[in-house]
Amino acid sequence: MKNTYHRLREEGAALRSLAKGLLPWAAAIVVLLMLPHVFAANSTITIMNQMAITIIFALSYNMLLGQAGMLSFGHAIYLGFGGFICIHVMNYLQAAGVPIPLPFLPLFAGLFSMGMAMLIGSFSTRRSGTVFAMISLGVVELVTSYSIIGYSFFRGGGVGGDRTLGVPFFGIEFLRQIEVYYLISFWLVASVSLMYLFTQTPMGRMANAVRDNPERAEFLGYSARWVRFFSFCAAGFFAGVAGGLFAINYELASAENLSVQASGAILMIAFLGGIGVFWGPILGAVLFTLLQTVLSLHTDLWQLYVGAMFLVTVMFFPSGLAGVLMMHVSVIRQNGLYGLLGPYFRTVGPAAIGILGVCALVELVFHSRHLARGGQEMTLFWITFQTVHPAPWLIAAGVATAGIWISKRNAPQLSKVWQPHIINP
């Protein structure tokens, strides 16, 4: 009886632990199902589709950088390979009348990109560190250059298709954007789940060991080169899935997705979110997509602000947004968050106001340098004024100076309040 009681207790604890682990995933699925009904505009659903694709791409890159410690400047080529093969397969299936529905095409894209990753990884993963990064940079330049002349596959840099001409999937022809959203959401949940499970496997654990100390991993009998190779191939597969979803969403595959700029963008996304936490790149993908789609509607200088944010993140918050949030989790557990509210209000608040003042000055300079004849009128922060008047310049400069000065004056107090939490996390 006593043994039965202990066994039941252990089984109950295991079930509670399993339910606690599955709860965030269930909540995420519910949110994904509800989002298109809360934000029903087609433009908003398109933004959410792009956000989901970027999440898969960012997490695949984190398998390289965050999990295995491989800094790659050419990860975007697997996104591009997946997009091109998805369009080619889509067009072939429609022309040949093969009854394979659209939701299966990202699988073909992932497998093709994984094959290319196996080919490229066979020589690039023999080295690590700076050498691997330079090899990846050379590979992306070669592939980008070849995409211009490789007409049989790249079609001179772009190829299109029509997703609605394929075989219906349970009566769904993917004519509406919300139908594409649920297709992308399915692959989002499947890809994120598989990538998370990969981190829990012995291979995923060894990737962390190779990242931290490859010599010790070799001493224990594991080949650092093969661990990097398998991680590289897995990352290529999920990047290809993201590329296939991109092609399905936009019905286009472009050489821009192969470029070093796309690889640099995903590196920026991963660092903004935080490569030390699995869900960090998810935050980075959401933030970057919002900045790219929403901020670009209001200013032509959105890339300048994103670049400045990336620079500040690398210099002052190297753990990214996820790392900052995780720091506050321990503070909340110690019931110390209330003591931080006042210093935060006195330091972060003026800093935000000062940054807005700096942005206003930048916009004023940009507008004055590019204004048309008779175009002195400008709207900034929903206020319309004449840029030839000195008042807007003086106000922007005063707000920037005062906000930054007050924030800098109060920063030592915030650091003093944070000190005990840093010493005793």
Write a brief structural summary.
One of its GO terms (molecular function) is branched-chain amino acid transmembrane transporter activity. The chain has 425 residues and is mainly alpha-helical.
Characteristic terms for this protein:
two-stranded antiparallel sheet, 4 strands, single chain, transmembrane, ABC transporter involved in vitamin B12 uptake, BtuC, cell membrane, ABC_transp_permease, two-stranded antiparallel ribbon, transmembrane helix, 76% helix, Branched-chain amino acid ABC transporter permease, mainly alpha, 425 residues
Give the biggest beta sheet.
2 strands, antiparallel
> Which regions are unreliable across 5 or more consecutive residues at pLDDT < 50?
none
Total DSSP helices: 16
Note the overall shape. globular
Q: Return the structural class.
A: mainly alpha
Termini, distance in Å? 43 Å
What is the residue-mean pLDDT, rounded to a whole number? 86
What spatial order of strands do you see in the largest sheet?
1-2
Number of strands: 4
Helix content: over 70%
Order of helices and strands: HHHHHHEHHHHEHHHHHEEH
CATH architectural category of the largest domain: Orthogonal Bundle
- Whole-number tally of structural domains: 2
Q: For the record, what CATH class of the largest domain applies?
A: Mainly Alpha
Give the radius of gyration.
Answer: 25 Å
Beta-strand level of the residues, as a percent range? under 5%
CATH topology of the largest domain: ABC transporter involved in vitamin B12 uptake, BtuC
Strand and helix layout:
Layout: H1 2-38, H2 42-67, H3 76-96, H4 105-124, H5 129-149, H6 151-154, E1 158-160, H7 177-200, H8 202-212, H9 214-219, H10 224-250, E2 252-254, H11 260-273, H12 280-293, H13 302-316, H14 320-333, H15 337-370, E3 377-380, E4 383-386, H16 390-423
Helix pairs in contact: 1-7, 2-7, 2-10, 2-11, 2-12, 3-4, 3-10, 4-10, 7-10, 8-10, 11-12, 11-14, 12-14, 15-16
